[in-house]
Structures
1.
Amino acid sequence: MTNAQSPALEVNNADGLTLARLDIGREERCGAPEAVFAQGKTPEDTLAITERLAEKQGHALVTRAGAEAMRLLRARWPDLREAAHAGLALVGTPPAVRDDGQHVAVAAAGTSDLPVAEEAVMTLASLGIGARIVADIGVAGLHRLLARLDDFRAASVVIAVAGMEGALPSVISGLVATPVIAVPTSVGYGAHLGGLTAMLGMLGSCSPGISVVNIDNGFGAAVAAARIINNAARLRRQEGTLP
Amino acid sequence: MTNAQSPALEVNNADGLTLARLDIGREERCGAPEAVFAQGKTPEDTLAITERLAEKQGHALVTRAGAEAMRLLRARWPDLREAAHAGLALVGTPPAVRDDGQHVAVAAAGTSDLPVAEEAVMTLASLGIGARIVADIGVAGLHRLLARLDDFRAASVVIAVAGMEGALPSVISGLVATPVIAVPTSVGYGAHLGGLTAMLGMLGSCSPGISVVNIDNGFGAAVAAARIINNAARLRRQEGTLP
Amino acid sequence: MTNAQSPALEVNNADGLTLARLDIGREERCGAPEAVFAQGKTPEDTLAITERLAEKQGHALVTRAGAEAMRLLRARWPDLREAAHAGLALVGTPPAVRDDGQHVAVAAAGTSDLPVAEEAVMTLASLGIGARIVADIGVAGLHRLLARLDDFRAASVVIAVAGMEGALPSVISGLVATPVIAVPTSVGYGAHLGGLTAMLGMLGSCSPGISVVNIDNGFGAAVAAARIINNAARLRRQEGTLP
Amino acid sequence: MTNAQSPALEVNNADGLTLARLDIGREERCGAPEAVFAQGKTPEDTLAITERLAEKQGHALVTRAGAEAMRLLRARWPDLREAAHAGLALVGTPPAVRDDGQHVAVAAAGTSDLPVAEEAVMTLASLGIGARIVADIGVAGLHRLLARLDDFRAASVVIAVAGMEGALPSVISGLVATPVIAVPTSVGYGAHLGGLTAMLGMLGSCSPGISVVNIDNGFGAAVAAARIINNAARLRRQEGTLP
Amino acid sequence: MTNAQSPALEVNNADGLTLARLDIGREERCGAPEAVFAQGKTPEDTLAITERLAEKQGHALVTRAGAEAMRLLRARWPDLREAAHAGLALVGTPPAVRDDGQHVAVAAAGTSDLPVAEEAVMTLASLGIGARIVADIGVAGLHRLLARLDDFRAASVVIAVAGMEGALPSVISGLVATPVIAVPTSVGYGAHLGGLTAMLGMLGSCSPGISVVNIDNGFGAAVAAARIINNAARLRRQEGTLP
Amino acid sequence: MTNAQSPALEVNNADGLTLARLDIGREERCGAPEAVFAQGKTPEDTLAITERLAEKQGHALVTRAGAEAMRLLRARWPDLREAAHAGLALVGTPPAVRDDGQHVAVAAAGTSDLPVAEEAVMTLASLGIGARIVADIGVAGLHRLLARLDDFRAASVVIAVAGMEGALPSVISGLVATPVIAVPTSVGYGAHLGGLTAMLGMLGSCSPGISVVNIDNGFGAAVAAARIINNAARLRRQEGTLP
Amino acid sequence: MTNAQSPALEVNNADGLTLARLDIGREERCGAPEAVFAQGKTPEDTLAITERLAEKQGHALVTRAGAEAMRLLRARWPDLREAAHAGLALVGTPPAVRDDGQHVAVAAAGTSDLPVAEEAVMTLASLGIGARIVADIGVAGLHRLLARLDDFRAASVVIAVAGMEGALPSVISGLVATPVIAVPTSVGYGAHLGGLTAMLGMLGSCSPGISVVNIDNGFGAAVAAARIINNAARLRRQEGTLP
Amino acid sequence: MTNAQSPALEVNNADGLTLARLDIGREERCGAPEAVFAQGKTPEDTLAITERLAEKQGHALVTRAGAEAMRLLRARWPDLREAAHAGLALVGTPPAVRDDGQHVAVAAAGTSDLPVAEEAVMTLASLGIGARIVADIGVAGLHRLLARLDDFRAASVVIAVAGMEGALPSVISGLVATPVIAVPTSVGYGAHLGGLTAMLGMLGSCSPGISVVNIDNGFGAAVAAARIINNAARLRRQEGTLP
């Protein structure tokens, strides 16, 4: 690994200080481009960094943006796609959705978990991967979930989003053979501990085959799903069944 | 409430020190007699207290007994009933099982949860209440659970025992109308946190109507179930449909 | 269990996305209808889902509603019943209170615990069950509690609501034979840990027979109480002493 | 899903009590057969359940077995494969290793993490999947890791096993495009919190694309890896490039 | 404060290394002499340090001693007083019990809390202060406690020892005006968290006037009680009503 | 204890619901009157309850009042004494400060800990007990503390208030013989955990004789100090040296 | 140590109460002057204390100042230096930067960690020590870090600032021999636990030689770095190679 | 950084599996050689790895060794130096102690903290750095500490080792200008949380300039101290005042 292969693009502020070293070689190296993590950045810095990234890549994804950063982004890219509840914005033109038979099913336990599901879907869109949300199928009304098993069997990955006790991924993983990435959410209160309980429960699941990402991290689940899809694509390209 | 109504029976050791004040009015007052909590007591004190209690009540239940206490109890009451894994012993002759149409279904998620389920069943036996265990029906293989719903519908209370992520009570509670008492167990490791994760998940369940007792507390779940059964019995006695 | 037996009613938003699958078979299946959990939902979605649910059931209960959602609900149903502190609203016409000799006593340790007690009472009202609050009887002034034991003995269930160290359910449970459902509250500070200390203390109570629900979860305690009351009602209907 | 499709095989003890309901349809349903979780089971029950499972499946994997259970298993199957430190045993004849170009690279940060890595490798062997361990490449000596990047690029999945601060998966995930499943281990002390710190760090990683399993759960990581490999195999079978 | 006023007595081991600097001025400075905290010391060092302390003071108290240290102490002082469960030993001749109308009431919630109560009593004995244990008066059987209020009113300090939910000090403190020092114990399991739950509950008590010491710290409670008793003694000596 | 001896005064709201049962016998029973805990109460209820209490007792102390409650109290009692940062108000005329040679020294580690120190001082004022604050003597500049030891020796109780690592009570307790009540504060950040670290450190102090109250609980420390002072006063009244 | 050697300067408020005892001897005693910790102080008190400190020392550093305190400080010292995000202000004229070949390298993992890095730099400036920030070199793009090793080798101390999993100090410490002070930051969410995860990971690092300060504590890291630099300066002054 | 510069030496077991890749370039790269972390390794593997390391370096340090590993090491190197309580062994001939005017003062709060202090001293010995222990100077008897300030002023680094509330480093750091590395120990119980309380208190210290290592990590503190000493040595070598 040399710096020539993985160059970093510096973004400076008005005082000449380095704000960011954009990892513009990440897509080639890791299969997914860098995104802008807006938490803890000023709205102005978020905008400046996003502009440089979009310039280089043709598009850029911003996560954890606050209201003011979102306002600046909207003013600069009036046609951006956004999931406002999740603080997510996708500016510029992402790659077209691949047409290779692989997609992701995103299961959301309750209506309140939808923003995290949408974060996953939009992140996948930024990577050219299709996704379908299956909403409000929490385990308190199991028939709603049992009616949708074929959706999960047809997908290459299931992203299972759930708050409260977070039992949804356990149940899905016991019913289908698809890889399941579990996303705990901060929906709940009290003993829910801001999502820690769901997260710990998913990690300690009695259903093997589940792997877990951080609370509310629809973005991370989507990138992990993309790596799974890319694994199959790589093999099929080697075999000549994908271009 | 006067001391005459709720007398306490002192048990002294050889030095004349008071070891215990047996709450021999508890059954009349609360519907279930006092039990001997052996943790932190010497085996000798456990034996002495159990003897006085059995003398007064005709039988006595000992919980959390260690190996040495269990040995002393067995030597004293060769025909005691025990659940050795749970450190539980029932000495003397408990009341006959009531024949009034009410019983408890005890669901155990995995084979490893059986000792806690047995603790609940033996505690219920000491109270004259019948119970049936439905073993190894964890949510990783949902069909095993769906096949037994009628067992849960026929019972007055379901005690649902589960370790790991503890999803079993949520799923049962979403399928039947019976009161569900959830018992988290210490079966699991790592993120399971010795049972705290299952406990917190049960408390934060998306399925309303569940109430929860302490980790591995089959005893407490059984006493809570007995109160529920006693509520119906009280009303039926008032109506003359029970003697 | 088939989907025909337990149908789900989809609520879509303006873009045709599924917001919710209302579990309209839950009342028949579980004895209590679905409620709307408003936390994490937009006020508009909360309103839309509540409308569909009220349409189907004649009434609907909304929990954890924020100020704006409450405003929309009030505008739509000017005569709703609400417990504003608890973010609770009851729209439409709930079933009449049953007249079968069973009711719930709701004990609140301090004045600050009243909103949670009211959440339980209003949830019970939505289920046609009567309830009486016994307020401000915390253990720091025990005579206030001892004066009200008959209230607890006359009820089918005691819901005991307490913050701080949460000792109230332990003390009540040691004095009466009624089933006790303990509700820890977030009233307190510092070592109270937002209610976790009360919750853990209730779970570790020395008074057997207590079962516990989540912090501030008056709603869940009420549904659990309803199941206990329904158990007796079911038996009495079988015996013909209830219609 | 019907019980006919997913039958459960009951294992009873000498008293006729049901010990286990073996989920013998799991392999067809989920892509990996049931394993025996020995923690909390008596050695005798572990043996009995393993015998039934091996009888049905031709082989069986036992996890979290104690010394006595291991002794019984060895006596029964003198030629079993075992990873004694991890309490893992593989009895009978597992399927042959697939020869389809997919395998797993298992990276272990330190020598002390090897038992968990071995648990993953043996679990994969029980599923017919090949694996290679890359040992002792923790981030304190980065050159050891940088020298092995091609091993990670050639694999379908990297399982990255690390205790202490658990930084290994973050660093690997930032260098290659392969799916990375992170396994925190209980190696460490003090602030390590028995592995929780490594687990939380992996979940909060700055390197997207990592998903995480429970502490020391080499078994779960292997099953998750198998699902990823099976996703590619399924597509290739559809395309006729795999038999 | 000069070193002459508060000298430290060095204890060296065989290699001439300083093991301890005994704070032999502590009694004059703080009202209670230094004790030997045996946890983490070798049995031999514990013995050596105890010998020097007893030599200087005429007596010495050892806390948290293991079985081997206890054996060495017993061999050296065959007539020592000990509370073996608490790892406590009192060697030499402590001061006579003061006859000034002040003493301590030590309330123990359950029989299992007695070792901690005994640690407090023996520590008080080493300081020449009298104490009486009131055993097994936990809040699950309130009448036992209500019958003993005069014991608490007659004392200068109540030390209230309780495990599980630790409600005893709250209830006592609401019934009498005596200073209450609460000692949580490690008696309990699961949600009890090794005594943390009792400790946190006591700190968050609704009954003001309670102060709390560490889990199982009967020693610390006794020293705190001694300071309270000394405050009154100091004033009375100033007034000439005590010699 | 009878209800006649310890009457409770009901305060009802406009709808006739009982808001509070004022424990007006508490002063006689416990040595300190009831105070109004305003957290979780509406400002209007806080005012109504305070009015009834002040009416009965001549004065009333309100703790944890928010800005709006404080405004209502100020409007009703323009001359109230308040510690606004601590949300504390003292309305009406408290008893005159006793002139019996006993007072409390309140040590505050840093300037930021002063509001909690003031809460203690004003609570003591409401009980007729004098107090003096010794401010900004944290252990980072030990000479400031060593210069004030006589202040601590002259007092009947030291209340030691400290945030961050909370070492102040340990150091004071090792230097003087006065009873020390430690109050951890929420001053600090990060590893301070909102005051838990200071609280746990005080409980685990190497300096015996410290007892601890809840985080920021200057009120509770003051009531505990009052009980200590009352113990000496009771003895002196018995001896006739106090009226 | 006498009070004459380490005098304390009292700052009183308008009512004559002591607000602070400025430790004006700290610089001579400890090598760095006292700073004003503004959290928990009123803006007015912060200003008053800062004025007295700046008067005595020629300059003063204020940490954790809120918006209103910052406004007052700016109004009083229009030319102050500030790091607004970090609540840091430096008023008056700090000492000139030493020209002795020692400086600090401040590594920041991400752009969001820059405010903490700036807090360290400005604190060092207040002590006359030079520093250079190396920004956005987190381990997700390792080449950015590997390109800057010479910056770390040339410095006397590396302050490594990182949120999320906090792996940066481990990796730097394994690559260079410079002392590394790790600063965890609160940048992250969910499993990050407000910075605790990064802090615990740094403490449990597999790379020995790291020491850690509190979350977001750039100030403390800078003072620790200054002590390291002063150690070398002291030796060199003794040798006459520094004036 | 190339692999040629930082070679790794593979140690294989009898089966040809790689057990370890010894980082034999670490001393040149980082200033301190690799040590053997024995926790989680078999005694045999510990011995094999230690042999290879000692062969290469002339000496080797083993940390966290259990009794059996210690026995094997003693059999192989009969003259090894060991700190048995700390599981530490130093085999072979370490470098001579440097005679350059720099050494470390290791302060231990209590006798029970000595094993951790010895771990630091022996690690420093393995690096050729001298150290002196100042034992039993905890803050409960402050005069013992104040008498030894010159020891701390004369050292290049103070390693301050303390359990319980861990106040020692705060107090030392407020009295001298030397760099202070704080080592929390697991000595304590209950609220001590196995050393976490001391660790958190040290991190949140009010005395700036302290940095902290893991619980009981005398080894890590020593390596950090060595880096501080090496910083001064490097500058002095550049100036020609050290050879």
2.
Amino acid sequence: MQRIYVIATGGTIEKVYSEQTGNVENLDSKIERYFRLLRLPDAEVHITHLMNKDSLEMTADDRDRVLEAVRDRLRESAPVVITHGTDTMVETGRMLQQSLPELRHPIVLTGAMTPLGFEGSDGLQNLTESLMAARILGPGVYVVMHNQVFPIEHARKDREKARFVWK
Amino acid sequence: MQRIYVIATGGTIEKVYSEQTGNVENLDSKIERYFRLLRLPDAEVHITHLMNKDSLEMTADDRDRVLEAVRDRLRESAPVVITHGTDTMVETGRMLQQSLPELRHPIVLTGAMTPLGFEGSDGLQNLTESLMAARILGPGVYVVMHNQVFPIEHARKDREKARFVWK
Amino acid sequence: MQRIYVIATGGTIEKVYSEQTGNVENLDSKIERYFRLLRLPDAEVHITHLMNKDSLEMTADDRDRVLEAVRDRLRESAPVVITHGTDTMVETGRMLQQSLPELRHPIVLTGAMTPLGFEGSDGLQNLTESLMAARILGPGVYVVMHNQVFPIEHARKDREKARFVWK
Amino acid sequence: MQRIYVIATGGTIEKVYSEQTGNVENLDSKIERYFRLLRLPDAEVHITHLMNKDSLEMTADDRDRVLEAVRDRLRESAPVVITHGTDTMVETGRMLQQSLPELRHPIVLTGAMTPLGFEGSDGLQNLTESLMAARILGPGVYVVMHNQVFPIEHARKDREKARFVWK
């Protein structure tokens, strides 16, 4: 059995459509429902819903909470996947890299350009890829999306293209 | 072969998620893509994209355009299905009823509470029901959604419940 | 509230893929799961799983059980939808029509060419249409599939075209 | 841009439901359609449909054709993903490993327990994982499915559990 920790922080991947307002918002968590669509016979996935925020609204305090949550889970000697809004994913990743100098496991940040369950969503693809990458990658902080693996220092969001690119 | 005319005017049923803005908007038409998921071997469905508006933004001029479009199609002696935002669907329906006193075919208004292709969407259900109802119902103006058929004078949107109710 | 009785007898619409044998079989009932995808706010749907058979294997005794089940439900003064294999759907429908001469509600037979939940399936479309037709149609026995309504005496399965045609 | 070669040989992952026979069969290729659901902005995926067989029907000649196809693609210095029936996937993988001693790239075998597009299918998950694993893994021959990576010499199909296990 491979233990994998997942820390959910919100972002587009978790947004839901509100029939009352007509907007998509971080109202509810849904990644558990989508994990259940995957077959993970020898993975023990532990999901923590840390917060549910658009990443543009994440504060320094929020990032400290993410850091503490990651630190706790690394003590269990297992990889960590963080679902996160794409707008400040790199900022959070860099902070983690600077604060956690002696990693022995991979920390994978992922998210989505379109919410899970909306037509054309990349959410389930990115979750699937991140769980696979978390098993294979060496220690380090990475962004994993769209069949790409970026060491955090080389990741940059290209808003126009709606994806990450190398820098 | 049964001919059925579909007039698309926008509304939630056609909204798409924009990866650039993070909003759902009437940017693009998609009902044709969803009609293709249905098997309609002896129906000849003619779709007209008349406008693509949130129904709260429909003006009296817009409603006149809908009326003209319906009048044109009724001349072909076939039922008409109108996809429409739910907020002012009843208003448009009543105007049609008043302006078209001698109907020989049903006019069915439908829409959705959640856009086509979003998880939990009622859009394809409502399209499917409307095409069926358009074949069976007698002359008149109706709202058809959620397995319900409302003669237009008895339809009222209940925003809290996110559906239509009898009045 | 509109009460609707559903009697499930099996057929392709309910077939499931067996990972052990690699075949599709009537092993398990699934229409309830698919009904839950529909919004039916004022319908009270009562589902009975009468049997789960490929309709080519239905016997005269099985048809008698269907007849008894229909008779019971008609006493409640509500329409009845029967999910059934397409190969002998017409045979069952004709027997019902002959045995139930004084109908006051519609009896709708439906099914699918491809099982519910398989890509390209017509199952959910046919369920949606049948529930709508059961509300609107007058008394009689009908086949409802693919946006078509056949009085039972005019229905014939065209195996090549994988649909029903008029006769 | 990362080039990835995909060689499709058939197996459950590509099976389709035939409305004429009521069986699932290797009649048609469909992985291309499912690849199109994935976002692969910097991957150049080349798909070859080598054969479309239930893997229980693969002959020694068929395996030689697979070997030749892999050899050709390895010359282009890129990883290879092979979609394959699960019943003899290990046999093909071992033959490749023995015949290709000096690998400089990963060869990933994958498949599915339930065909692509059938409810509950693991096919898209396995394709997604294999494309990710093909980018990260070192040289060698592997089975990748269900969030697991098996070096070929440690893979064994457990038919009861409908998955691969370590040996």
